[in-house]
Amino acid sequence: MTVTDPGRRRYVLATRPGEPDVTRPALGPRTLKVPVISTLQRELGAQLLDACDGRRDAALAALDRALIDAVVAAHPAPTTLGEPLITTTDLRKTYTVGGQRIRALDGVDVTIHQGEFVALTGTSGSGKSTLLQAMGGLDQPTSGRIVVDGQDISALSDGKLSTFRNQTVGFIFQFFYLQPFLDLQTNIEVPAMFARVRSGPRRARSQELAAIVGLGERLKHLPRELSGGQMQRVAIARALMNNPRILLADEPTGNLDRANALSIFELFRSICAESGMTIVIVTHDQDLALHADRVISMADGKVLS
Fold this sequence. Notes:
Elements: E1 10-13, E2 22-25, H1 37-51, H2 56-74, E3 84-97, E4 100-113, E5 117-121, H3 128-135, E6 143-148, E7 151-152, H4 158-167, E8 169-173, H5 184-194, H6 199-212, H7 228-240, E9 246-250, H8 258-275, E10 278-282, H9 286-289, E11 294-299, E12 302-303
Helix pairs in contact: 1-2, 2-8, 5-6, 5-7, 6-7, 7-8
């Protein structure tokens, strides 16, 4: 894998062993629009409180809806779908727990296109996290096919799966999984270390990503010195480090307060709209899910819609 100077706004990497390098636009500070949430919170908060006759809960709910609508308007969905990027065919995953056979995935057929922002929803145990992990090569299906970026990853060896996870997919989890004794910048750089990127381009890229997520002044801070929202921003920057084609996020706002959840939602929409990256999130937050480009609802291991 080779990487150009991030200041040139290009990131070069080989998608598969033996193939020529391909060049994709790298996400940079000039790519993303100015966040709308902080401005609207100031401008609309007092107005909505007056409009709701001082009822704080009603005003907050109205502000919540206004902020989400504004984020979607500022970072609209693509007008046309890109090429299919993730396709699952008759995907099945079964576990045996205490002698009982559990069907976590039961014949799942989905197609997700380049540049889409997709939300997977459903109750606990519906199979949404299992599907996300299968798409990212973290969990092997019992049967069926998963084709991602032209590769049937259900048939890849462990070594090729590791390469796929490092170069094609960025992962974001509810609990951040930052290394507690590494500073912010080094945490961001971990995926590039595994890809054997030289220190110069690696440091420049991590500085650029820290600026994108609003933490450019905290590069030498340890995770314990950051808030929950800031730690999730570090995790997003880390997931973007190798310029993946796909971001997969499992309950990325589950441990955050509402203000930070909305801020992370805006960051996702901005990345998707401005860079064309495909983003798939698992969420229980129906308000946020309904403002994704598409919602895939699941129950009992099956896709409902």
